[in-house]
Amino acid sequence: MKKLKLIVMIDVYLLLEMKMKIKQEGKEEVISAWYMDDSKEDQRLPHHKNPEEFISLDKLSELGILSWRLDADNYENDENLKKIREARGYSYVDICDVCPEKLPNYELKIKNFFEEHLHTDEEIRYCLEGSGYFDVRDQNDQWIRVAVKKGGMIVLPAGMYHRFTLDTDNYIKAMRLFVGEPVWTPYNRPHDHLPARKEYLDALSKKQAVEAN
After folding, report:
1. What GO terms in the biological process aspect are recorded for it (predicted)?
2. Which pLDDT tens digit goes with each residue over 147-190?
């Protein structure tokens, strides 16, 4: 059942937007992505390649990443957010501030966030204020940097290797969502033996096979 759910998830975001009639004009203004360089400089820098190599949100959806642009100034009463939560079963929600002044054990947690890892459930984040970078691996194990600003909401699929860092503004206020009771356990790479990882890779390969025919 989980495998079927994951395969369907990779193509589901367009269907959700049509079904829920969520207007998505300007989504690229709050969510953008590009391939990263190999520099060891400050992780908070953009780390563009030279020349820069941007990728589309459609490419992200092919990797199983869902994304929306929502009204962050009205998140408590936003009907679009309510529709997404109902459609995807996001019953749990909390809000956290990630910055040196508000996050206990800030340096340690930022270090842990930037360790490459996966989860056995989706990672759902909605940026209410500030900005940050979610780095994800593509099907060729290359790093893609996903920049999320105020109003951007993304869902990383279970089994996808990723990491998170703030940008040079050093602040994000993010809503975290979850199906049922939250489980935040990170599995640092390598954890390729986990069922969630195998199911994610299987879903990607099946999608590529369908597109090739």
Report:
1. L-methionine salvage from methylthioadenosine
2. 999 999 999 999 999 999 999 999 999 999 999 999 989 999 99
Q: Tell whether 47 is in a known binding site.
A: no
Structure confidence at residue 138 as a pLDDT band (50, 70, 90): very high
How many structural domains is the chain composed of? 1
Is 162 labelled as part of a ligand binding site?
yes
6 is in which domain, residue-wise?
2-212
Q: Is 48 annotated as a binding residue?
A: no
What is the chain written as a DSSP string? -HHHHHHHHHHHHHHHHHHHT---TTGGGTEEEEEB----S-TTS--B-SS--EE-HHHHHHTT-EEEE--GGGTTT-HHHHHHHHHHT--EEEEEEESTTTSTTHHHHHHHHTS-EE-SS-EEEEEEEEEEEEEEE-TTS-EEEEEEETTEEEEEPTT--EEEEE-TT--EEEEEEESSS-----EESP-TTSHHHHHHHHHHHHHHHHHH-
6-26 mean pLDDT: 56
To the question of pTM greater than 0.85 for the whole model, the response is yes
According to the annotation, is 191 in a ligand binding site?
no
